Amino acid sequence: MLQSRVLVIALILLLSTALPEVHSKSVFERDRRDWLVVPDAVASYVYEAVNKVSPRAGQFLVDAAQTPAVVATRNFLIRETTKLSIMAEQLIEKIKNLWTRVRGY
Question: Are 14 and 46 in contact (CB under 8 A)?
């Protein structure tokens, strides 16, 4: 019970300090590859925090992350996020082109 409380506190502290670092750029300044780094960065921060508190729990996270279900889900999310990022980039380009035509330049 005590370990789970320590783990929850560590995760709260970790996420409160890690997420502002991840979101330091403006949405329009991001390269589409930056979006794919966010989940891996969060997972890395969580693993480091858990591993510091309990190496056994850290090893459990590593083992859990390598199960076929997690790997398949991660690959699916990466594939779909890439598609969405490309579509968002194309939409932004279309909006820029439309705005340029509306302004008359």
Answer: yes
CA distance 45 to 88: 27
- pTM of the full predicted structure? 0.52
User: Which residue type is seen at 15?
Assistant: L
Low-confidence ranges of the chain (pLDDT < 50): 18-20, 22-23, 27-28
3-state secondary structure the chain: CHHHHHHHHHHHHHHHHHHHHHCCCCHHHCCHHHHHHHHHHHHHHHHHHHHHHCHHHHHHHHHHHCCHHHHHHHHHHHHHHHHHHHHHHHHHHHHHHHHHHHHCC
Query: 42-81 burial, b if ≥16 CB within 10 A, otherwise e?
Result: eeebbeebbeebeeebbeebeeeeeeeeeeeeeeeeeeee
